[in-house]
Design goal:
heterodimer, A: about 325 residues, mainly alpha, 11 helices, about 0% strand, B: mainly alpha, electron transfer activity (chain B), transmembrane (chain B)
């Protein structure tokens, strides 16, 4: 494996980590809008991800930073080309973060309601926008010979991209429902399990259609294997959920996310930004990569730091392993 | 949409607005993390409840502040690619590395441990819980180092070569990039200025409460911690600023000549106190100066010549081809003065406070005060300030509590606009750095949206800050005083307190 190939894999792993972790906290955010029946239940949902959502989000920051360092051209083309969708993503991330932190800082009913709506809205929009972005990355967008994006906003909103967006919303909400069932007690846990069944079926239909379309378009043997793995994991997750094995259901729903995102990266390889115009516009693992010296340094850093990061993040989940219910939420917590 | 604007103008405004805004939260985050950690350390060591109440109070303000710092930081990382894609292509091989390292080594650390600290009061034994806030504090400082090393490379590129074929910068020596004198000097100057900011913030709020004789025990301690921080950090900021200035005289003489509106080379060079100039003609019409001082600032002696703007402009034109290499001189001149002025004023006020509130040194026993009364402001051994003057001191401390923030904002405006027309000094001009594929309309959209959202959030944030600052430290609960003895909470896995409410919840 060459260094640029290794870094393609590292970036894939960072995105997989991001979607595995932030995926369920997007889902919990969406579910706080309709699975929870009243304020205490909404707060139960929000607090299942309270201590961890910020750490989850850093996987995105690191994925973007690693892309800048390892594939400057990929970073430059992607971020300038997808300008308005990324603007929307950044705004959602800003409002969502502030909503978590500030919602409980005032007792005022309207204030809290407003931030709760913000959490639901941004948690819906973000997976949709990421789904659209990744569908476009994999399928290819109009890039000229200088690798500049020459399409319009509408070119990013084709049927394949929109399907990708909807599929991402369904999948992450499913993942979030399974996580909710694992992390709560009482009535809401039962409802989360029931919702997970329907969300799982919707994910299967939408995600299946999207990945099969992608496979037909650009897939190879590797991506086909990942697609099959995602499908099997979804069945396993649904079975575990039906039997009330919530830990297993979460492992399997996580595997769906991992395999699904891996499928997209396998279909993308060896390109990083294929051009839908002439061949020479395409950015590949080789022509977009940084120098071997930079990649070597980054490899040392990543090899040293990543295991430690995974260890202390896993420890955080262990510290907050207790299930929570409405009885654990104090009346007025500021 | 086509405007009669240079393509980089809007992108520069956006970068300026979002960066100055982001940096309103950064210095407070850096300093309050450590100051809160210090207070919590005092609590764990002494079990004196005033320290825990102080920890909870300042910790709350710290959290309101860091939330904004975190979310506005995402914009910073994204906009290099969005608005400055040609910059990103040119520097990515060098500049991306410290950014990725910052995420990997600092952001994960900060963001994970902040969650543990916020929600961990009833989950972690006291010493372990204390370690999490120190981890956050260390994370903020590491983060500052990497991002300042990246910025220093824009100020003074080292450890690279230009690839003739691709025309891009390529990293050859990461150690040099991370340890060059610009990076070290910028780091220390920024960190000390951050602590000046946090100290002044503490002093201002403590003064507000002490003037009203409220929460005296906690606020006395906070005042003292704040005043010591202000004076120590203020002096160090001046010292590190002087070092950084001398480095800049070598590396970017044009920036420093502009900072002094020194049009012609002079030796000995005077320090300008006030000037009104004519930029087109290249001279000042009014100037109030102190002879020799600029030579000292640049070279540590009072006679050596300091090159002027007009000569430097000719030199640079010879080196890099015809063109105007002058930054916006009035902006550089005034931003440099506002930076120093606001910073110094804050330090002076802190020094005055430290003297006035001394506890024993050259102080008559009659003027000494106990833990539960506000300090009496003693001018000399026997004399204290009258009630009117005392009140004025508290009021001034409150009014000036944001001075270091203003100074920091001007400092960044100075160093970034003073480097123009370069984005990477000597290598890449700002007008060659923007995204060629992004339309003016798109930049206007994002500039407008960011400005509006940021303005609205500023109001929200400021109101919360004021509410919590006025409310004062919270009363302690039973749970606060009986922290868990094992990880995961009191009973571990036992049922006796399975339904106990969480100590903190959103």
């Amino acid at each position: 494996m060459s260094l640029p190939e290794l870094w393609f894999a590292v970036i894939a792993v960072l995105w997989i980590g991001y979607f595995f972790l932030e995926g369920f906290d997007f889902g919990v955010g969406v579910l706080s809008g309709w699975l929870a029946r009243d304020r205490p239940e909404r707060r139960v949902l929000i607090n299942t991800i309270g201590p961890v959502w910020d750490g989850n989000e850093v996987w995105l920051i690191t994925a973007a930073g690693a892309t800048f360092a390892a594939f400057p051209d990929w970073y430059a083309t992607l971020f300038s080309g997808f300008y308005l969708p990324l603007l929307a993503i950044v705004l959602c991330l800003i409002l969502r973060g502030v909503a978590f932190e500030y919602r409980a800082k005032r007792a005022d009913e309207r204030w809290q309601r407003r931030w709760e709506h913000t959490i639901v809205g941004t948690s819906l929009l973000l997976p949709f926008l990421w789904g659209v972005a990744f569908a476009n990355i994999v399928r290819g967008v109009p890039l000229d010979a200088d690798h500049e994006y020459v399409g319009s906003l509408l070119d990013l909103l084709g049927p394949h991209a929109l399907l990708g967006g909807v599929a991402a919303v369904a999948l992450f909400t499913f993942h979030g429902a399974v996580f909710t069932a694992l992390k709560t007690v009482g009535d809401i846990r039962v409802r989360a399990r029931r919702a997970a069944l329907w969300l799982g079926l919707a994910s299967g239909a939408l995600g299946g259609a999207f990945l099969l379309w992608t496979q037909a378009d650009r897939g190879d043997a590797g991506s086909a294997v990942a697609l099959a793995a995602a499908a099997l994991a979804l069945l396993a997750a649904l079975a575990a959920n039906a039997r009330g094995r919530e830990g297993w259901a979460f492992i399997w729903s996580g595997t769906v996310v991992v395999a699904g995102v891996a499928m997209l990266f396998l279909a993308l390889f060896p390109d990083v930004m294929p051009s839908s115009l002439a061949e020479q516009g395409t950015l590949t693992v080789e022509n977009a990569a940084s120098t071997p010296y930079t990649l070597r340094i980054m490899t040392w850093c990543a090899a040293a730091a990543t295991p430690v990061v995974v260890l202390y993040q896993a420890w955080t989940y262990w510290v907050f392993r207790k299930r929570i219910g409405t009885q654990h939420i104090a009346e007025s917590a500021h | 949409m086509d405007l009669a604007l240079a393509p980089e103008t809007l992108a520069r405004w956006q970068f300026g607005i979002t960066t100055v805004y982001h940096f309103l939260f950064v210095p407070l985050t850096i300093s309050l993390a450590s100051l809160t950690a210090g207070l919590q350390t005092a609590w764990v060591r002494t079990r004196n409840e005033k320290y825990l109440r102080a920890t909870k109070f300042w910790g709350k303000l710290f959290l309101i502040n860091i939330a904004m710092g975190v979310v506005t930081g995402i914009v910073q990382e994204f906009q290099f690619g969005m608005n400055w894609s040609d910059y990103s292509r040119f520097v990515g091989d060098v500049f991306g590395a410290p950014l990725a390292m910052e995420a990997l080594l600092a952001f994960f650390f900060e963001s994970t441990f902040i969650g543990l600290w916020i929600f961990g009061w009833d989950k972690l034994p006291p010493k372990l819980h204390l370690a999490t806030i120190w981890a956050v504090a260390v994370g903020t400082v590491i983060s500052a180092y990497f991002i300042l090393a990246a910025n220093s490379w824009m100020q003074h590129p080292v450890g690279y070569r230009i690839n003739e074929e691709s025309g891009r910068a390529e990293l050859t020596d990461i150690v040099h990039v991370l340890t060059q004198n610009t990076a070290v000097a910028q780091f220390f100057h920024t960190i000390t200025a951050s602590f000046l900011t946090g100290g002044a913030f503490m002093v201002g709020i403590a003064a507000y409460h002490l003037a009203r004789r409220r929460h005296v025990a906690v606020m006395r301690t906070s005042l003292r911690l704040g005043l010591i921080t202000v004076v120590a950090a203020g002096l160090l900021t001046a010292f590190t600023g002087d070092r950084l200035g001398k480095i800049m005289y070598e590396q970017q003489p044009m920036k420093m000549a502009a900072a002094e509106a020194l049009w012609e080379t002079e030796g000995p060079a005077p320090f300008s106190l006030f000037a009104v100039g004519d930029v087109d003609e290249g001279h000042n019409t009014v100037a109030v100066e102190v002879p020799g001082v600029l030579s000292f600032l640049a070279h540590d002696n009072f006679t050596e010549p300091v090159p002027g703007i007009n000569d430097l402009n000719e030199q640079l034109a010879e080196e890099y081809g015809p063109g105007d290499y002058r930054p916006n001189v009035p902006l550089a001149y005034w931003s440099f003065r506002w930076m120093i002025g606001f910073g110094m004023a804050s330090t002076a006020l802190g020094a005055a406070g430290l003297w006035l509130t001394r506890r024993t040194l050259w102080l008559s026993p009659a003027l000494r005060t106990g833990e539960d009364e506000p300090p009496r402001l003693a001018l000399t051994r026997e004399r204290e300030l009258g009630p009117a003057l005392t009140n004025w001191y508290w009021r001034l401390a409150l009014l000036t509590m944001l001075f270091p923030l203003i100074a920091s904002a001007w400092g960044w405006i100075f160093t970034e606009t003073g480097r123009q027309p370069w984005v990477v000094y000597g290598l890449l001009r700002t007008d060659a750095a923007v995204s060629p594929g992004v339309s003016q309309g798109e930049v206007i959209t994002s500039l407008t949206v960011f400005t509006l959202v940021y303005a609205a959030l500023a109001v929200v944030e400021a109101r919360l800050m004021i509410t919590y600052a006025k409310a004062g430290p919270p009363e302690l609960t039973e749970a606060d005083l009986n922290p868990p003895t094992r990880i995961g909470g009191h009973g571990g896995g036992q049922d006796d307190d399975a339904d106990r409410p969480m100590a903190f919840s959103y």
